[in-house]
Amino acid sequence: MNTRHLLIALLLLSGCQATSSNMALQSDRQPNVILIVADDLGYGDLGSYGQQLILTPHLDRMAAEGLRFTDFYAGSPVCAPSRCTLMTGKHPGHAYVRDNWEAGGWNEGDAEGQQPLLPDTPTLGRAMQEAGYQTACIGKWGLGGPGSTGAPQNQGFDHFFGYLCQRQAHNFYPTHLWDDDQKLELEGNVWKNLTGPHYAHDLMSEDALKWTAERGEDPFFLLLTYTIPHLALQVPEDSMAPYIGEWEDPPYEGGKGYLPHPTPRAAYAGMVSRMDRDIGRLLAQLKEMGVDEDTLVIFTSDNGATYDIGGAHSEFFRSNGDLRGAKGSVYEGGLRVPMIARWPGNIAEGEVTDAVGAFWDLMPTLLEVAGSEPVSEELDGTSLLPVLRGEAVAHERTLYWEFPGYGSQQALRQGNWMLVRRQLSKKNKTTTELFDLANDLSQTTDIAAEHPELVEEMLLCMEAEHIPSAEFPLRGIDTPAK
What we know:
Order of helices and strands: HEHEEHHEEEEHEHHEHHEEEHHEEEEH
Structural class: alpha/beta
CATH topology of the largest domain: Alkaline Phosphatase, subunit A
């Protein structure tokens, strides 16, 4: 057995030991739902998606025991707007939050939070509550700070634990987290220190295990929004140990607000493996509770991997695989993400689908799983439950993104065609590119000039999908380009 295989075996022993099961009769009971969303995890960061250096045995086994999507997309190339599409079932041209917005600065004690969701927003959490579910969000929120209309307890969650503010989540050893509406001080953690006594990811994992274990007969919905592997690079030494000395790993000296790290590549790999380990623990607990076959577990990421800043080495790990671009870009590398679904007895094992899906599909999907009616006729998403069950579906879909940040951008996928518009905010510098994803997944060749009529048709579709936003105007479209 080589070193890599031995490490995988050891990691598997630290988490679940689930075995594959045959398709079983569906239960009349409403299934539990666990939706796990990683933070800045790229399309190529998992072994089941081609990763060669980082060990992810539990998520790989989850893929082997369930369904893996090849063509699934985040709601946006950055955190808050992506989460808004997930929570509301609306694509970025209709959603309320379309970019990151900050209530305060980057110093300890500054106001926390991002643009809050409006009161009475039809959210996934609220809809699951109304369907009879106990609900919890554990991890990073980013849709409203403490006491705001967007806080989780005001948007359909019985319990929240973690970071309300995504700026605070840039440090895995924060001075505090939020337990429901109470500020939980983490004694001994020092603002902007590389290490400390309380690793936030571990606290959130323990809270998820505890909350899940305490559920009774009523179905539960857990939204587990891990902050790994978002910067800063911070992880306990035991998770880095398998990677120390495995490759050249020059120190990162810090800068631009990011913490330095002596072994940044080992840290990144260790972070991903630690998250994988704790997902394994959660899957194992479901078996111990006897609810494994009554629980749909979905894993995905909020956007593509970051570009090489803050010590991240996305190119070294090929975190975005063969995809062009990274976080902040509406090229495939910023939007296409892993998506794995496991539900023993309801989802066939070891299947792979090229059905096209996006974050705004998750709300109608989970509502159908819960046996509930859609909360609004204005949802942009389509239920993916037929895909999960292996039924024949039409793969031809139109998906639209807009993102006011990074120069103002739009993207539209129509079948296998992808139209990308960038630098909308810069007069005379806007680019409009067309790609054939079936033959050019890496988006290396712009063929817009060869298909002018198709480009015009897709531009009209973009225009139809965009509703102007006073809070997040699309520069160059809603406001003049500079």
